[in-house]
Amino acid sequence: MTAVLLAAVLAVLALPLSALVIPAAVEELTGGGDAEVRPPALQRPPAGVLEPGVVSALSTSAPQPAPGVLASLLDAELQLPGGGGRFTGVVRDAATGEVLYSRGADEAQAPASNLKLLTAAAVLNTLDPQDRLETTVHAGGDGVLYLRGGGDVLLGSGSSEAGAVRGHAGLSTLARETAQALDPASGPYNVAVDDSLFEGPPLNPSWAQGDVDAGELAPVYPLAVNSAWQDEGLQAGARDADPALRAAEAFTAALAAAAAERGIEVLGGPVRAVVPDSAEAVASVRSATIGEQVEHMLVLSDNYLAEALARLASAAAGGPASSDGATALLAATADRLGVPGGGLRVGDAAGLSVDNSATPAQLAALLSAVAASKRPALAGMPGLLPVAGLSGTLKERFAPNAAAVRGAGVVRAKTGTLSAVTALSGYVVTAEGRLLSFSLMGSGIEGRTPEARDAVDRAAAVLAACGCR
């Protein structure tokens, strides 16, 4: 097996520990150990975490699906009951790059959250996935404590949670450490928040106001609690109108309580101000790793996190930490990875801009380039995607659908949904051990999203069951 293919296989098969029981999970979801739906041995995850050099189950000698047979099977699934809508798609052999299926491959349409695949690739290609984001407090010597955002929008209002991604860095922990660093004879203190790391308008002008009102997005700042969702216990619903100020308010309340125990007074609500050069850092908390945050973004399709990570990557690449900088980086990443440019337009990092467009050929080419990358961080991206029937936005899909159940536990893919669009792009290992990348898109499906999702799920399950010769 070549080193390139080995990297791709490791990325796809090295599932999170929580998903290392896929065969049992599939049996449970299908009502028992039905041999007809249980994934073949080559599709099952290993019994432990794989190390480089131990994968030998997949090779370039595994049978490749026959394009003619594949086209007949996929075309039969990519349709709505009674007609309507328009489905397009591309399937590629991940080892050779050969296109095995092409239907409307160059038709540009809104990719929805499938654009996050490009966002993830840009972030992983630019930032060190082991790096962490730091939220700091600085004492200015003027009676002001400055809370500086370092790009972590998954802050928790409580104590830091070492094993978590969301809430890994807690503002209550930061407040306690700050109080401990202060002289008991000092004070009173005011609190200011420095959110100057990000540049430009916090709201992308190409976002529909209805999406903002619905909580799909919020003004993007370099610090936020729980991706700006108002209910910290949920990852849905309304978002804060000013996420940075809300984070600062949570920190101020926790600091006032912690400082009072030491006889130090903290005054009223926070204001905005930039940390002066003379200020001294007194406390900090660090986020989960960039790699963990990228996985969180892909698995849950977190729009706010996607926007923040893309701005950070733009800054690291020498561009502005702004929406324009982020979209320029995404376009440059696509070009660098050899994604054909015709029809590709990038209006944001989350996939909600009205200016976004991409073709199935472009998304499939991106996925193939990622899997073939010699950069470990990029080649590992397939292993960060949701698993069909088991995790994230794919948790409730495939397994409940008898016609798609063969894809459960086997397909790793990114979902995408808008009112008239559904998309599914990712990877699958066939029943005979061939690694494929694919992009399936449906448009013109207003009011029929569940049926369109079933169609692309069934098509992905066809790939898992191949054969196809």
**Uncertain segments of ≥5 residues (pLDDT<50)?**
1-38, 41-57
Order of helices and strands: HHHEEHEEEHEHEHEEHHHHHEEEH
Share of residues in helices: 25-40%
Query: How many distinct beta strands?
Result: 12
| Cα distance spanning the termini | 23 Å
β-sheet strand percentage: 15-25%
- Estimated structural class: alpha/beta
The CATH C-level class name of the largest domain: Alpha Beta
Give average pLDDT, whole number: 89
What overall form do the CA principal axes indicate? elongated
- Summed up, the helix count is 13
User: What's the CATH architecture of the largest domain?
Assistant: 3-Layer(aba) Sandwich
Outline the fold blueprint:
Elements (H helix, E strand, L loop, with lengths): L2 H11 L8 H8 L37 H11 L8 E8 L5 E5 L12 H11 L5 E8 L4 E5 L3 E4 L15 H11 L8 E5 L14 H5 L9 E3 L17 H18 L10 E2 L7 E10 H11 L2 H14 L6 H14 L23 H13 L3 H4 L32 E7 L2 E9 L5 E9 L5 H17 L4
Parallel strand pairs: 4-6, 5-7, 6-8
Antiparallel strand pairs: 1-2, 1-12, 3-4, 3-9, 10-11, 11-12
Helix pairs in contact: 3-13, 4-8, 4-9, 4-10, 5-7, 8-9, 9-10
Description:
There is one protein chain. With 469 residues, the protein is of the alpha/beta class. It has 2 domains: 3-109 and 359-465, Beta-lactamase, CATH 3.40.710; 132-290, 3-Layer(bba) Sandwich (D-tyrosyl-trna(Tyr) Deacylase, Chain: A). Helix content is 32%, strand content 16%. It is built from 13 helices and 12 strands. The chain has helices at residues 3-13, 22-29, 67-77, 116-126, 171-181, 209-213, 243-260, 290-300, 303-316, 323-336, 360-372, 376-379, 449-465; strands at 86-93, 99-103, 132-139, 144-148, 152-155, 190-194, 223-225, 271-272, 280-289, 412-418, 421-429, 435-443. It has a 5-stranded antiparallel beta sheet, sandwiched between helices. It is elongated, with a radius of gyration of 23 Å. The chain starts with a helix and ends with a helix. Residues 1-38 and 41-57 have low confidence and may be disordered.
